[in-house]
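pinned: reference chain
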Amino acid sequence: MKKIAYISSITIFILLLGCTFHQAWSDDLLTRDQAISILMEQVINQSNNKETLIAFGPLNYLGGGDKVEPCYPSEKSGMVNLHEIESPTWFFYVNDLPNAGFVHPTRFIYIDATNNNPTIDNGIVIEYQEWNPKINEDSVYEDAYKGNTHTDWVYGTIPSTVPIMPTGRPHQ
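pinned: its structure tokens
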């Protein structure tokens, strides 16, 4: 009987220890508010068009295996058509010309959630795009132009008129 109690005590200790390590790892990740502050300081405040751009970002960070891509892949050289997430990462979509119909400049911003002091090229990756993103094959932010109440909205004034969104692959 003592042997069973001893084994149970060790099992509970190991489980609690594992939860403590997981909690410590989770506590080391950037929060969404911290990631938004970094986005503001490192990206938006450095933008020439900060008065007119808008930015969105999911409420939760992306994890290993998640995939981000533009709604319509570009055939231009240098454009990234698929970004696979390897570790906890905060993703932000910056629409540089929210009053324009597509195709126009947008940016996909990736902030490493495990880096407590990320900078451009050291924990922050900027991909220049032309479309809104898809995350894990789901198109996001196509309906974002319905007022400043979108839950993922983080910066800027969403236009009162809805830009024309294509229903099929655009002609380029």
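why pinned: The CA atoms of residues 4 and 34 lie 46 Å apart. The first helix runs from residue 2 to 27.
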